[in-house]
Amino acid sequence: MQLDITGHQIALTDALQQRVQDKMQKLKRHSDEITHMHVVLNIEKHNHQAEAKAHIPGAELFALAEADDMYAAIDLLSDKLDRQLLKHKEKNVARHNGSHSRSARHDI
User: For all residues of the chain together, what is the average pLDDT?
Assistant: First the structure.
């Protein structure tokens, strides 16, 4: 997975970059299909924002998290992306198993 980290109005310290890398690597436990991820850290007034766009085959996931602390925003972002990956994976498994592809007229 290629990971790009960008900071707007914030200095990207090694600690912040390491936190983002650690949290995004944990997403691999659900899906190793993530090809590219772009994370943007931003501060607007007293609001810390973390947003990410993840590219996976067949979809593009986006999440935005806001908190009073940048580390908390990164944690929230990771949780949101984790839930989205699980949902996407469950949909693909259901589609692959044909759970809703058959209609009533095919049962005749």
Answer: 88
